[in-house]
Protein backbone atom coordinates (compact mmCIF):
# COMPACT_ATOMS: atom_id res chain seq x y z
CA UNK A 1 0.00 0.00 0.00
CA UNK A 2 1.38 3.41 -0.98
CA UNK A 3 2.05 6.07 1.66
CA UNK A 4 -0.57 8.30 0.01
CA UNK A 5 -3.22 5.62 0.22
CA UNK A 6 -2.33 4.75 3.80
CA UNK A 7 -2.65 8.40 4.83
CA UNK A 8 -6.13 8.80 3.32
CA UNK A 9 -9.30 7.16 4.61
CA UNK A 10 -11.07 5.18 1.90
CA UNK A 11 -14.78 5.85 1.41
CA UNK A 12 -16.86 3.32 -0.54
CA UNK A 13 -19.44 5.23 -2.59
CA UNK A 14 -22.19 2.69 -3.27
CA UNK A 15 -24.92 3.57 -5.78
CA UNK A 16 -27.29 1.43 -7.85
CA UNK A 17 -26.26 3.27 -11.00
CA UNK A 18 -23.31 5.46 -11.94
CA UNK A 19 -22.21 7.45 -15.01
CA UNK A 20 -22.19 7.10 -17.94
CA UNK A 21 -25.82 6.34 -17.04
CA UNK A 22 -27.58 9.69 -16.84
CA UNK A 23 -29.63 10.71 -13.82
CA UNK A 24 -29.73 12.84 -10.71
CA UNK A 25 -28.60 10.12 -8.28
CA UNK A 26 -25.82 9.09 -10.63
CA UNK A 27 -24.60 12.67 -10.99
CA UNK A 28 -24.71 13.26 -7.22
CA UNK A 29 -22.75 10.07 -6.47
CA UNK A 30 -20.17 10.98 -9.10
CA UNK A 31 -19.79 14.45 -7.57
CA UNK A 32 -19.18 12.92 -4.15
CA UNK A 33 -16.56 10.59 -5.63
CA UNK A 34 -14.83 13.49 -7.39
CA UNK A 35 -14.82 15.60 -4.21
CA UNK A 36 -13.32 12.68 -2.29
CA UNK A 37 -10.64 12.22 -4.94
CA UNK A 38 -9.70 15.89 -4.65
CA UNK A 39 -9.61 15.84 -0.83
CA UNK A 40 -6.19 15.45 0.84
CA UNK A 41 -7.45 13.12 3.56
CA UNK A 42 -10.08 10.98 1.82
CA UNK A 43 -10.08 8.56 -1.09
CA UNK A 44 -13.06 7.13 -3.04
CA UNK A 45 -13.85 3.73 -4.44
CA UNK A 46 -17.16 3.37 -6.25
CA UNK A 47 -19.23 0.18 -6.06
CA UNK A 48 -22.15 0.09 -8.48
CA UNK A 49 -23.89 -2.26 -10.92
CA UNK A 50 -22.89 -3.34 -14.39
CA UNK A 51 -25.10 -2.19 -17.29
CA UNK A 52 -25.36 -5.80 -18.44
CA UNK A 53 -23.94 -9.24 -17.77
CA UNK A 54 -23.17 -11.31 -14.68
CA UNK A 55 -19.48 -10.56 -14.37
CA UNK A 56 -17.84 -8.00 -12.10
CA UNK A 57 -15.60 -5.45 -13.81
CA UNK A 58 -13.08 -3.05 -12.30
CA UNK A 59 -12.03 0.11 -14.10
CA UNK A 60 -10.49 3.48 -13.35
CA UNK A 61 -12.71 6.34 -14.47
CA UNK A 62 -11.69 9.96 -14.08
CA UNK A 63 -9.05 8.82 -11.60
CA UNK A 64 -11.55 6.88 -9.47
CA UNK A 65 -11.64 3.09 -9.09
CA UNK A 66 -15.10 1.83 -10.11
CA UNK A 67 -16.26 -1.69 -9.29
CA UNK A 68 -19.34 -2.76 -11.29
CA UNK A 69 -21.10 -5.82 -9.88
CA UNK A 70 -22.94 -8.22 -12.17
CA UNK A 71 -26.74 -8.18 -12.28
CA UNK A 72 -28.83 -11.37 -12.34
CA UNK A 73 -32.22 -9.79 -13.02
CA UNK A 74 -34.02 -6.46 -13.15
CA UNK A 75 -37.44 -5.71 -11.72
CA UNK A 76 -38.60 -2.49 -13.34
CA UNK A 77 -35.76 -0.06 -12.57
CA UNK A 78 -34.26 -2.23 -9.82
CA UNK A 79 -31.16 -4.37 -10.51
CA UNK A 80 -30.74 -7.43 -8.26
CA UNK A 81 -28.29 -10.23 -7.55
CA UNK A 82 -28.16 -12.85 -4.75
CA UNK A 83 -24.36 -12.53 -4.75
CA UNK A 84 -24.22 -8.93 -3.62
CA UNK A 85 -24.00 -9.58 0.15
CA UNK A 86 -20.88 -11.68 -0.41
CA UNK A 87 -19.45 -9.37 -3.06
CA UNK A 88 -19.99 -6.23 -0.99
CA UNK A 89 -18.18 -7.72 2.01
CA UNK A 90 -15.34 -8.81 -0.26
CA UNK A 91 -14.89 -5.48 -2.02
CA UNK A 92 -15.21 -3.40 1.14
CA UNK A 93 -12.44 -5.50 2.66
CA UNK A 94 -10.33 -5.65 -0.50
CA UNK A 95 -10.41 -1.88 -1.08
CA UNK A 96 -9.70 -1.07 2.57
CA UNK A 97 -12.90 0.95 2.90
CA UNK A 98 -13.27 2.58 6.31
CA UNK A 99 -16.54 4.41 5.60
CA UNK A 100 -19.57 3.51 3.46
CA UNK A 101 -21.50 6.19 1.59
CA UNK A 102 -24.64 4.67 0.04
CA UNK A 103 -27.14 6.32 -2.31
CA UNK A 104 -30.80 5.29 -2.72
CA UNK A 105 -33.88 5.08 -3.38
CA UNK A 106 -33.55 2.14 -5.79
CA UNK A 107 -33.98 -0.83 -3.40
CA UNK A 108 -31.19 -3.38 -3.17
CA UNK A 109 -27.56 -2.41 -3.42
CA UNK A 110 -27.56 0.63 -1.11
CA UNK A 111 -29.64 -1.17 1.53
CA UNK A 112 -27.25 -4.12 1.50
CA UNK A 113 -24.22 -1.84 1.67
CA UNK A 114 -25.56 -0.30 4.88
CA UNK A 115 -26.62 -3.67 6.29
CA UNK A 116 -23.25 -5.32 5.61
CA UNK A 117 -21.02 -2.37 6.40
CA UNK A 118 -19.86 -4.14 9.55
CA UNK A 119 -17.97 -1.82 11.86
CA UNK A 120 -17.63 0.78 9.14
CA UNK A 121 -19.85 3.84 9.76
CA UNK A 122 -22.38 4.23 6.96
CA UNK A 123 -23.82 7.45 5.54
CA UNK A 124 -26.99 6.96 3.49
CA UNK A 125 -28.14 9.67 1.08
CA UNK A 126 -31.82 9.31 0.24
CA UNK A 127 -32.85 10.98 -3.00
CA UNK A 128 -36.65 10.64 -3.07
CA UNK A 129 -39.95 10.98 -1.31
CA UNK A 130 -42.36 8.06 -1.50
CA UNK A 131 -41.84 6.04 -4.65
CA UNK A 132 -45.54 5.21 -4.99
CA UNK A 133 -46.40 5.44 -8.66
CA UNK A 134 -50.13 6.06 -8.17
CA UNK A 135 -50.83 5.23 -11.80
CA UNK A 136 -53.44 2.88 -13.31
CA UNK A 137 -52.18 -0.68 -13.20
CA UNK A 138 -49.49 0.02 -10.62
CA UNK A 139 -51.36 -1.48 -7.66
CA UNK A 140 -49.08 -4.49 -7.21
CA UNK A 141 -45.93 -2.38 -7.54
CA UNK A 142 -47.27 0.19 -5.10
CA UNK A 143 -48.02 -2.51 -2.54
CA UNK A 144 -44.44 -3.75 -2.79
CA UNK A 145 -43.11 -0.21 -2.52
CA UNK A 146 -45.36 0.45 0.47
CA UNK A 147 -44.08 -2.64 2.24
CA UNK A 148 -40.49 -1.66 1.55
CA UNK A 149 -40.96 1.92 2.77
CA UNK A 150 -42.85 0.84 5.92
CA UNK A 151 -40.81 -2.15 6.99
CA UNK A 152 -37.39 -2.25 5.32
CA UNK A 153 -36.38 1.37 4.93
CA UNK A 154 -36.79 2.35 8.62
CA UNK A 155 -34.36 -0.42 9.56
CA UNK A 156 -31.86 0.80 6.97
CA UNK A 157 -32.19 4.36 8.28
CA UNK A 158 -31.65 3.14 11.86
CA UNK A 159 -28.56 1.15 10.85
CA UNK A 160 -26.91 4.14 9.12
CA UNK A 161 -24.69 6.33 11.30
CA UNK A 162 -25.80 9.46 9.41
CA UNK A 163 -28.46 10.32 6.82
CA UNK A 164 -28.38 12.95 4.08
CA UNK A 165 -31.69 14.20 2.65
CA UNK A 166 -31.58 15.94 -0.72
CA UNK A 167 -34.70 18.02 0.00
CA UNK A 168 -37.44 18.39 2.63
CA UNK A 169 -39.58 15.71 0.92
CA UNK A 170 -36.85 13.05 1.09
CA UNK A 171 -37.98 10.17 3.32
CA UNK A 172 -34.77 10.70 5.31
CA UNK A 173 -35.98 14.11 6.46
CA UNK A 174 -36.92 14.44 10.13
CA UNK A 175 -34.61 11.83 11.60
CA UNK A 176 -32.35 13.07 14.38
CA UNK A 177 -29.14 12.22 12.48
CA UNK A 178 -30.18 13.75 9.14
CA UNK A 179 -28.41 16.58 7.33
CA UNK A 180 -30.00 18.24 4.30
CA UNK A 181 -27.60 18.67 1.37
CA UNK A 182 -29.24 19.26 -1.98
CA UNK A 183 -27.84 18.32 -5.35
CA UNK A 184 -26.07 21.12 -7.16
CA UNK A 185 -24.84 22.34 -10.49
CA UNK A 186 -21.50 23.34 -11.98
CA UNK A 187 -22.14 27.07 -12.39
CA UNK A 188 -18.97 27.49 -14.44
CA UNK A 189 -20.22 24.96 -17.02
CA UNK A 190 -23.95 25.66 -17.05
CA UNK A 191 -23.88 29.37 -17.89
CA UNK A 192 -26.53 31.71 -19.29
CA UNK A 193 -27.04 31.90 -23.02
CA UNK A 194 -28.89 34.60 -24.93
CA UNK A 195 -31.87 36.23 -23.17
CA UNK A 196 -34.78 33.74 -23.27
CA UNK A 197 -36.96 36.28 -25.09
CA UNK A 198 -34.68 36.02 -28.11
CA UNK A 199 -34.36 32.24 -28.27
CA UNK A 200 -36.24 29.87 -30.60
CA UNK A 201 -39.53 28.64 -29.13
CA UNK A 202 -38.15 25.29 -28.00
CA UNK A 203 -39.83 23.60 -25.02
CA UNK A 204 -37.30 21.21 -23.48
CA UNK A 205 -37.63 18.12 -21.29
CA UNK A 206 -34.51 16.43 -19.90
CA UNK A 207 -34.80 13.16 -17.98
CA UNK A 208 -35.82 9.53 -18.04
CA UNK A 209 -38.29 8.27 -20.63
CA UNK A 210 -38.92 4.84 -19.09
CA UNK A 211 -42.32 3.23 -18.67
CA UNK A 212 -41.33 2.53 -15.06
CA UNK A 213 -40.86 6.28 -14.63
CA UNK A 214 -44.33 7.27 -15.83
CA UNK A 215 -44.54 9.48 -12.74
CA UNK A 216 -42.28 11.90 -14.61
CA UNK A 217 -45.43 12.97 -16.47
CA UNK A 218 -43.91 13.36 -19.93
CA UNK A 219 -47.21 12.32 -21.50
CA UNK A 220 -48.81 15.31 -19.73
CA UNK A 221 -46.21 17.54 -21.37
CA UNK A 222 -46.94 16.09 -24.83
CA UNK A 223 -50.66 16.77 -24.33
CA UNK A 224 -49.91 20.28 -23.07
CA UNK A 225 -47.71 21.00 -26.07
CA UNK A 226 -50.57 20.00 -28.38
CA UNK A 227 -52.39 22.99 -26.93
CA UNK A 228 -49.69 25.31 -28.30
CA UNK A 229 -50.31 24.42 -31.93
CA UNK A 230 -51.10 28.03 -32.76
CA UNK A 231 -47.68 29.34 -31.70
CA UNK A 232 -45.40 29.75 -34.74
CA UNK A 233 -42.10 27.90 -34.49
CA UNK A 234 -42.89 26.15 -31.20
CA UNK A 235 -41.18 22.77 -30.86
CA UNK A 236 -40.97 20.15 -28.13
CA UNK A 237 -37.57 18.53 -27.62
CA UNK A 238 -37.29 15.37 -25.51
CA UNK A 239 -33.77 14.70 -24.21
CA UNK A 240 -33.31 11.26 -22.68
CA UNK A 241 -33.78 7.61 -23.44
CA UNK A 242 -36.06 4.79 -22.38
CA UNK A 243 -38.66 2.28 -23.45
CA UNK A 244 -41.50 4.83 -23.15
CA UNK A 245 -40.20 6.92 -26.05
CA UNK A 246 -42.16 5.04 -28.76
CA UNK A 247 -45.34 5.50 -26.69
CA UNK A 248 -44.71 9.24 -26.37
CA UNK A 249 -43.99 9.66 -30.07
CA UNK A 250 -47.11 7.64 -30.82
CA UNK A 251 -49.11 10.00 -28.62
CA UNK A 252 -47.65 12.96 -30.50
CA UNK A 253 -48.77 11.37 -33.78
CA UNK A 254 -52.24 10.76 -32.36
CA UNK A 255 -52.46 14.44 -31.34
CA UNK A 256 -51.26 15.64 -34.75
CA UNK A 257 -47.99 17.20 -33.54
CA UNK A 258 -45.45 14.55 -34.54
CA UNK A 259 -43.68 16.93 -36.92
CA UNK A 260 -43.06 19.37 -34.03
CA UNK A 261 -41.73 16.83 -31.49
CA UNK A 262 -38.05 15.86 -31.57
CA UNK A 263 -36.45 12.91 -29.76
CA UNK A 264 -32.87 14.05 -29.19
CA UNK A 265 -31.68 10.94 -27.32
CA UNK A 266 -29.42 11.09 -24.28
CA UNK A 267 -27.15 14.13 -24.28
CA UNK A 268 -24.16 14.71 -22.02
CA UNK A 269 -21.33 17.20 -21.67
CA UNK A 270 -21.27 20.20 -23.97
CA UNK A 271 -24.22 18.91 -26.02
CA UNK A 272 -26.47 18.87 -22.94
CA UNK A 273 -25.37 22.34 -21.86
CA UNK A 274 -26.03 23.71 -25.34
CA UNK A 275 -29.50 22.15 -25.43
CA UNK A 276 -30.42 23.70 -22.09
CA UNK A 277 -28.98 27.18 -22.66
CA UNK A 278 -30.63 27.58 -26.08
CA UNK A 279 -34.14 26.43 -25.09
CA UNK A 280 -36.91 28.94 -24.50
CA UNK A 281 -37.99 27.04 -21.40
CA UNK A 282 -37.54 23.70 -19.63
CA UNK A 283 -40.47 21.75 -18.19
CA UNK A 284 -40.50 19.13 -15.43
CA UNK A 285 -44.08 17.79 -15.33
CA UNK A 286 -43.70 15.17 -12.56
CA UNK A 287 -46.80 13.69 -10.97
CA UNK A 288 -45.66 12.42 -7.55
CA UNK A 289 -43.36 13.04 -4.60
CA UNK A 290 -40.88 10.61 -6.11
CA UNK A 291 -39.53 13.84 -7.64
CA UNK A 292 -37.75 14.98 -4.51
CA UNK A 293 -35.60 17.63 -6.20
CA UNK A 294 -35.39 17.95 -9.99
CA UNK A 295 -31.81 18.26 -11.20
CA UNK A 296 -32.87 19.33 -14.68
CA UNK A 297 -34.56 22.40 -13.19
CA UNK A 298 -31.40 23.59 -11.48
CA UNK A 299 -29.28 23.08 -14.59
CA UNK A 300 -31.76 25.12 -16.61
CA UNK A 301 -31.90 27.87 -13.99
CA UNK A 302 -28.09 28.06 -14.07
CA UNK A 303 -28.38 28.70 -17.81
CA UNK A 304 -30.88 31.49 -17.30
CA UNK A 305 -33.53 29.29 -18.93
CA UNK A 306 -37.07 29.79 -17.58
CA UNK A 307 -38.58 26.69 -15.96
CA UNK A 308 -42.07 25.34 -15.41
CA UNK A 309 -42.62 22.52 -12.92
CA UNK A 310 -45.37 20.65 -11.14
CA UNK A 311 -46.28 21.78 -7.64
CA UNK A 312 -45.35 18.42 -6.17
CA UNK A 313 -42.46 16.80 -4.33
CA UNK A 314 -39.33 18.93 -4.06
CA UNK A 315 -40.06 21.11 -7.09
CA UNK A 316 -41.67 23.99 -5.13
CA UNK A 317 -38.70 23.89 -2.75
CA UNK A 318 -36.28 24.24 -5.67
CA UNK A 319 -38.15 27.06 -7.39
CA UNK A 320 -39.34 29.01 -4.37
CA UNK A 321 -42.50 31.11 -4.61
CA UNK A 322 -44.55 30.64 -7.77
CA UNK A 323 -43.43 33.11 -10.40
CA UNK A 324 -40.22 34.06 -8.58
CA UNK A 325 -37.70 31.85 -10.37
CA UNK A 326 -40.11 29.53 -12.17
CA UNK A 327 -43.78 28.78 -12.69
CA UNK A 328 -45.66 26.04 -10.80
CA UNK A 329 -48.71 24.14 -12.08
CA UNK A 330 -50.89 21.38 -10.59
CA UNK A 331 -49.45 17.92 -11.33
CA UNK A 332 -51.17 16.07 -14.16
CA UNK A 333 -53.05 19.16 -15.42
CA UNK A 334 -52.08 19.52 -19.07
CA UNK A 335 -54.30 22.56 -19.60
CA UNK A 336 -52.60 24.46 -16.76
CA UNK A 337 -49.20 23.35 -18.04
CA UNK A 338 -50.03 24.58 -21.55
CA UNK A 339 -51.13 27.95 -20.15
CA UNK A 340 -47.89 28.35 -18.17
CA UNK A 341 -45.77 27.45 -21.20
CA UNK A 342 -47.75 29.88 -23.34
CA UNK A 343 -47.08 32.68 -20.83
CA UNK A 344 -43.32 32.17 -21.04
CA UNK A 345 -43.25 31.72 -24.82
CA UNK A 346 -45.31 34.84 -25.54
CA UNK A 347 -44.19 37.24 -22.79
CA UNK A 348 -40.53 38.09 -23.34
CA UNK A 349 -40.31 40.29 -20.26
CA UNK A 350 -41.63 37.49 -18.05
CA UNK A 351 -39.25 34.96 -19.62
CA UNK A 352 -36.20 37.18 -19.11
CA UNK A 353 -37.16 38.02 -15.53
CA UNK A 354 -37.69 34.39 -14.52
CA UNK A 355 -34.50 33.29 -16.27
CA UNK A 356 -32.36 35.90 -14.49
CA UNK A 357 -33.96 35.11 -11.11
CA UNK A 358 -33.26 31.42 -11.61
CA UNK A 359 -29.58 32.05 -12.21
CA UNK A 360 -29.36 34.17 -9.04
CA UNK A 361 -31.08 31.45 -6.99
CA UNK A 362 -28.67 28.81 -8.26
CA UNK A 363 -25.62 30.92 -7.42
CA UNK A 364 -26.93 31.48 -3.90
CA UNK A 365 -28.09 27.93 -3.10
CA UNK A 366 -27.03 25.24 -5.55
CA UNK A 367 -23.35 25.61 -6.52
CA UNK A 368 -21.63 22.22 -6.23
CA UNK A 369 -18.43 23.42 -4.53
CA UNK A 370 -20.08 24.64 -1.35
CA UNK A 371 -22.47 21.68 -1.20
CA UNK A 372 -19.68 19.12 -1.53
CA UNK A 373 -17.63 20.82 1.18
CA UNK A 374 -20.61 20.33 3.49
CA UNK A 375 -20.84 16.69 2.41
CA UNK A 376 -17.18 16.04 3.17
CA UNK A 377 -17.72 17.61 6.60
CA UNK A 378 -20.36 14.96 7.33
CA UNK A 379 -17.98 12.18 6.27
CA UNK A 380 -15.07 13.60 8.21
CA UNK A 381 -17.19 13.81 11.36
CA UNK A 382 -17.44 10.01 11.52
CA UNK A 383 -14.77 7.78 13.00
CA UNK A 384 -13.03 5.25 10.81
CA UNK A 385 -13.61 1.55 11.05
Would you give an account of this structure?
The protein has helices spanning 3-7, 24-38, 84-94, 109-115, 139-159, 218-226, 245-254, 269-277, 295-302, 315-319, 334-346, 348-365, 368-380, and strands spanning 9-14, 42-49, 57-61, 64-69, 73-75, 78-80, 97-104, 122-126, 162-165, 178-180, 202-206, 235-239, 261-265, 281-284, 307-310, 327-329. It is built from 13 helices and 16 strands. By secondary structure, the chain is α/β, with parallel strands linked by helices. The strands form three sheets. The protein has an eight-stranded mixed β-sheet with strand order 3-4-2-1-7-8-9-10, sandwiched between helices. The chain has a six-stranded parallel β-sheet with strand order 13-12-11-14-15-16, with helices on both faces. It has two domains: 3-184 and 367-380, 3-Layer(aba) Sandwich (Rossmann fold); 196-365, Rossmann fold (3-Layer(aba) Sandwich). Helix 2 (24-38) crosses helix 13, helix 6 crosses helix 11 and helix 9 (295-302) packs across helix 12. The mean pLDDT is 93.
CATH architecture of the largest domain: 3-Layer(aba) Sandwich
Profile the largest sheet.
8 strands, mixed
Which fold does the CATH topology of the largest domain refer to? Rossmann fold
Q: Strand portion, in percent?
A: 15-25%
What would the principal axes of the Cα set say about the shape?
Answer: globular
Average per-residue pLDDT, rounded, comes to 93
CATH class value of the largest domain: Alpha Beta
The count of strands amounts to: 16
